[in-house]
Amino acid sequence: MLGQSSHRCLGHRGQDLIQGKDRYKWYEAKFCAEDQPEWNIGRFVSSRQVSPEYRAVTVECEASRERIPLRAAYKAAGQRASLRINNGVERNCTVASPPFPESINYEPLFKVRGDLFAHEIKTVREPISVKAELTVMVTRKEAPEVYGMGPDDVVEVGPFVGTGLDLRSSPLMAMYSCPTVVMFVAGKGIATCMSLLESTSDVPNLSLEFRRDVRVYYKAPNASSIAFKDRFDDWEQGGPLKILTTTTSFQDAFDDDDSLTYDPESTGAVILTGGDEEAEREALEVCKDAEISKILTDSAEQAAPVFLSSNPFQDWMSGKARRPPQRNFPAEPESGSEQQTSSGTPVAV
Q1: The whole model's pTM is what?
Q2: Is the C or the N end of the chain the one with fewer CB within 10 Å?
Q3: Transmembrane region positions (predicted)?
Q4: pLDDT of 109-138, one tens digit each?
């Protein structure tokens, strides 16, 4: 009967399941790794002196998208790593290794989508762990615990800091309209340079193999301070790239490079000085004299991404409804006035 079929659905304790508290959570999207800890235990791998001032320290860290949320992951060259040694002070370190390729997360991403292989059944499984090596470049002064880390130390890796180089919105990404790239590198910027040059094709990179000419002008205080010299040959084999070192100035290195032929309109510049404002101003001055206007610097990071909310009705339920975006309509011309058409010809309205 109608009266019997219209009763409310009650739980075993008489609770109203239709209007139950937090019922909306039944329908919330669950983003992967959102319930995982921010800090994960890593493992010391190696440490080597790359210059009298800088040391490259390599640790093994968690890189699985089932354990590391996207907002905390290493996604772009220029981001900084958060490290804690023996539960001590958090240190933000310049990263020298490239962003982790998407290929290492094939299995975790397949799993978080809810896909199954033919022989599998739906059962609760532990999150998949994916380990990757992370190399940071530090000095004794800025991060003494990381600088002196050894096999017996406990290292924790936290969320990566910053958004990285603004490659996505840079005109340098148009590789065919910007076939020539000149890079000015100094100080800790060599670590970001290494990260950028060694990035794989599935993360933002310079696509060296499609460029016509790439030059790296690396300035160091003296010859013994040139870091990662053992990597130079590998970088030059990755594309039409040539590395020129100098112990004087960027201007001298640029002027002495007689083999570079460039068109300012189709040439871009990348300035990586690791926070050295004086070196950045010097590189910008070289670009100004060379009439190069397409410039990417490590001091200007890309815009922070906007992450979706797991509950699209959260603002509505909390009483803080968002205002709809305002559209700016063009003003209507007055009667008898002239209006430009798309072809530029004035027409009467």
Answers
A1: 0.81
A2: N
A3: none
A4: 888 877 777 777 777 778 899 999 999 999
